[in-house]
What does this fold into?
Amino acid sequence: MRNQQKLSVAIVGAGIGGLAVAAALRKHFIEPVIYEQAEAFARVGAGIQQSPNAVKVHRWLGIEERTRAVAFTPATSLNRDALSGKVTNDHPLGREVEARYGAPYLTMHRGDLHDALASIVPNESIRLGKKLTQIRERGARVELTFADGSEAEAEAVIGADGVHSLIRDHVTGPEQPRFTGRLAYRTTFPAALLRGVDIGSSRTKWWGKDRHIVIYFVTADRDEVYFTTSQPEKADWMTKESWSMKGDLGELRDAFAMFHSAVQRVLAAAPEVHKWGIYERDPLPVWSKGKVVLLGDACHPMTPYMASGAAMALEDAAVLARAIDESDTLDGAFRLYEQTRKPRASMVQTGSSANNWMRNETNPDWLYGYDASRVPLRSSLAAEASTYYEA
Ligand SMILES: Cc1cc2nc3c(=O)[nH]c(=O)nc-3n(C[C@H](O)[C@H](O)[C@H](O)COP(=O)(O)OP(=O)(O)OC[C@H]3O[C@@H](n4cnc5c(N)ncnc54)[C@H](O)[C@@H]3O)c2cc1C
It folds into this structure.
């Protein structure tokens, strides 16, 4: 955009998407300010899978060397029957995936990914302890009010405020997420606690009839393990979507008591666990309103079953920054961004709900082959064909 270096941009939320879009805008000489509700960044006990399409954004932002140094590179995506242990699909990752898509498949600690993104955004542009309570568009400016009574304004606002986004309510009205009746337990813990139990060098998903568990290392040194589950909620309450809520290890172990002994040994080693209610939402009708635009979970929250929510937030960040750079107006930029991203993000959102990704032989070219730093931006409604694959 003309004079874009003078465009004042506020980002609400310093999670994966907020930090990534701040770094992406800085590549285009825009210096945004990020407002984050947390008083400090915490190392949430969670693993995260970064498929090649996500790692291509790491590369474009300049953090690939750092993430590759700390992350684990699983040899395969191993899918097994929960009871018999029979392999239903063993999809090669490691060198094969890198040779095919030009980037590796990594599994890592969410905190390490967050740290890497934070390292490329200056501290002084992140305002911590700023919980947004109100947003108003007034003429050419957007006004933000925070819980501590302070205010800020900007010419453009990016809502990267996650799954419970207040900015989404501003853009599309209050939403009614549907509780799926399921919850995810998850934890990271030192591999030493496994006391010799071998989890192998794959990212392994054990598929039961109505529940599953995914297990993998999150560090290059294989000294930290992660698992995440999905299972029916046994009571009739609705578990919240929360990164901090603790779960009951006894309930978790009971729920997986019929699973293969290899799984039970991992559950027996875990010292604590968190739980997260799994909710569903439909794709949003629009992604922006006036000078306010959404990104990441605020825009297309999804169930975790394709392990792609953060990857989508990273891709959004790259495309939104490029669209702002290439457009004459903010309105045009937001349209270009939505046209480019919506078909793909909606496809992943829908595919995640189905929860069958990789269970049997699967061709992931459309997902892993995408490069958000180079995908053509769509200026027409021909966006349906917006997946970009180059082997
Ligand atoms: C169990 C589980 C496993 C997952 N595994 C994977 C995986 O393997 N791979 C993958 O790609 N994705 C995975 N995901 C999804 C991924 O975690 C999310 O899609 C990703 O974090 C979205 O990034 P975001 O920036 O949109 O939101 P977040 O990272 O959640 O960041 C939102 C930020 O906004 C802040 N905020 C919220 N409200 C306000 C406010 N009012 N004012 C100021 N700040 C505010 C929050 O404090 C937070 O820092 C998983 C999710 C779950 C639940």
